[in-house]
């Protein structure tokens, strides 16, 4: 379905914030397939939902290829096609909760933060911290790292009942290992490369303790004890 872009701006770290007008419903951690071109590039791009409010839906995305480059050049008033929401999303949890995001992995966590009553948030960046004011509004505490200090260096995982994370595979591997032999449970949203986004092409296959799964359809969120990274 075609919608209208109301905002599309650079926010730092090679990332853009795009807001699209319309009525949307989705679970935290789901994604939409975005498309603003006719034939080339062939595939729509899977982008995590940053937020949904009464005015529309917003996305935070990183320019990584031709599709996202075209998205970044779109202007207010231009049209865009959205399909979705797709994916399973994060399961809602209660207790002491930490959200951990690395790079563009911070994108799905803002909607999570709004849906969880109390949480601490840990955001890791390469060159500069971005979007932190948004998280400060909805989280109890926001901690950031930039550059050589990894976000995993400043987390005491055992302090939390649940960790909900999205970011590069090494970050999530480390977090899962930090929760092993503790009472802390972790959900990770995988950033596997996707093509069709709807379970038809198998490009996004990941390994779990119950066999191969499709990141786009069975995930992107998995419990840490189930997924094999
Ligand atoms: Fe095609 Fe997941 S992206 S099956």
TrEMBL record:
Name assigned to this protein: Dihydroorotate dehydrogenase electron transfer subunit
Cofactor binding comment, as recorded: Binds 1 FAD per subunit. Binds 1 [2Fe-2S] cluster per subunit.
Species of origin: Peptostreptococcus russellii
Swiss-Prot/TrEMBL cofactor(s): [2Fe-2S] cluster; FAD
GO BP, sorted A to Z: pyrimidine nucleotide biosynthetic process
Coiled coil: none
Binding site for [2Fe-2S] cluster: 196, 201, 204, 216
Record CDD domains: DHOD_e_trans
Residues covered by the FAD-binding FR-type domain: 1-92
Stated family: Belongs to the PyrK family.
Keywords: 2Fe-2S, Electron transport, FAD, Flavoprotein, Iron, Iron-sulfur, Metal-binding, Transport
Protein origin, superkingdom: Bacteria
InterPro entries: Cyt_c3_hydrogenase_gsu, Dihydroorotate_DH_ele_sf, Dihydroorotate_DH_Fe-S-bd, FAD-bd_FR_type, FNR_nucleotide-bd, PyrK_electron_transfer, Riboflavin_synthase-like_b-brl
Pfam families: DHODB_Fe-S_bind
GO molecular function: 2 iron, 2 sulfur cluster binding; flavin adenine dinucleotide binding; metal ion binding; oxidoreductase activity
Database matches in Gene3D superfamilies: Dihydroorotate dehydrogenase, electron transfer subunit, Nucleotide-binding domain of ferredoxin-NADP reductase (FNR) module, Translation factors
Binding sites annotated in the UniProt record for FAD: 45-48, 67-68
């Amino acid at each position: 379905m075609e919608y209208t872009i109301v905002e599309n701006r650079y926010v730092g770290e090679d990332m853009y914030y795009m807001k699209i007008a319309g009525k949307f419903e989705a679970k935290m951690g789901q994604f939409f397939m975005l498309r603003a071109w006719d034939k080339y590039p062939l595939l729509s791009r899977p982008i995590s939902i940053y937020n949904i409010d009464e005015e529309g839906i917003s996305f935070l995305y990183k320019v990584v290829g031709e599709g996202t480059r075209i998205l970044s050049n779109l202007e207010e008033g231009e049209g865009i096609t959205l399909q979705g929401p797709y994916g399973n999303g994060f399961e809602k949890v209660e207790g002491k909760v930490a959200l951990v995001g690395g790079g563009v992995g911070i994108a799905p966590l803002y909607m999570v933060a709004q849906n969880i009553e109390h949480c601490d948030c840990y955001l890791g960046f390469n060159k500069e911290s971005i979007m932190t004011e948004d998280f400060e509004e909805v989280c109890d505490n926001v901690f950031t790292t930039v550059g050589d200090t990894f976000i995993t260096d400043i987390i005491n995982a055992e302090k939390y009942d649940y960790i909900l994370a999205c970011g590069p595979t090494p970050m999530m591997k480390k977090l899962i290992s930090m929760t092993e032999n503790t009472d802390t449970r972790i959900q990770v949203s995988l950033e596997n490369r996707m093509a069709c986004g709807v379970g038809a092409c198998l490009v996004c296959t990941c390994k779990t303790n119950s066999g191969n799964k499709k990141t786009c359809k069975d995930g992107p969120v998995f419990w840490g004890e189930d997924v094999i990274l």
